[in-house]
Structures are given as C-alpha cells and as structure tokens.
Amino acid sequence: MFSDGSDVTIREGEIEYTACNCCDAPTTVVTGYFEVGELSAGWYTVGVTHDRPGHLPLVRLYIGDWSDTAGPDERWGLRVGIDKEGPVLLDWSEEEMTQARPVFTPLNRLQVLGSPVEPQLWTLLDKMLTQDSRL
Questions:
Q1: 2 falls within a domain
Q2: Which end of the chain is more exposed for a tag (fewer CB within 10 A), N or C?
Q3: CA proximity to 40, closest of 98, 130, 124
Q4: Which pLDDT belongs to residue 4?
Q5: Which structural domain, as residue segments, surrounds residue 90?
Q6: How many domains does the chain have?
Q7: What is the CA radius of gyration of the chain?
Q8: Measured between alpha carbons, how far is 39 from 24 in angstroms, rounded to an integer?
Q9: Residues 100-110, mean pLDDT to the nearest whole number
Q10: How many Å from the N-terminal Cα to the C-terminal Cα in the chain?
Q11: Residue 53 within any structural domain of the chain
C-alpha cells in the first residue's frame, strides 16, 4: 500500500449484472479503483444479490502493487461482508486461497486485525462506501 489511505481517491469502474454463484439470483457487481495521485493503490468489487435477504453484500478489496512486474507478495486481498450492524471482516475459503495465491496474498481476519493493514482497510472501506455514488 502506498499510504495510510487518507490520500486515496475513488474512481468508479464497471457494473456487471450476473447471477449469484450459490443460488443463481440476480446479482449486481460494481468495480472501483483506489488511486493516490496518478498511482494505483488497488481496486475493489462489491456484489449485491437481489431478493435474498440472507445474502450479505460482499466487498473484496485488492490493495498493493497490481502492475505487471509485481508478484503475489506485493498484492493483498481482503473480504468484507456488510450487515445491519456494519462491516464484518471475512475469511477466504481454502479453495479461494489456493486459487488466489499465484496472483495475490489473501488475508484472513486474524492476519488483519491488530496489524498495520487494519487501519488502511477501514479507511479504504469508508472512502469506498461514502464516495462511490453507486453504493
């Protein structure tokens, strides 16, 4: 990550209309980008499954260096569910972690809570939720 997150801006990206992986319900996924000046600090997706009250909106944050020359040790992914009480840091499944590791390092709750990444996570999440007009 290039900063503590306070100087990051949001650039809105694509919107995808798809089906939920587990139940085929209509799902909307928005993508956005974290930028510090002209540098990329990462990106995010937010998936919302419609007409399924039990499905939490799922946020995936991807931070670090996503240039072609960077490796998985320079890129991190985090998952956050949003419920009535606020954001909840989620763990990746073993299958998701196996698929992710060649591209980025998936971080679970215990790796984030109390670490230097935690304040960055909450700052970025707050910026994303308050500055992305689609959310």
A1: no
A2: C
A3: 124
A4: 63
A5: 9-129
A6: 1
A7: 15
A8: 37
A9: 96
A10: 24
A11: yes
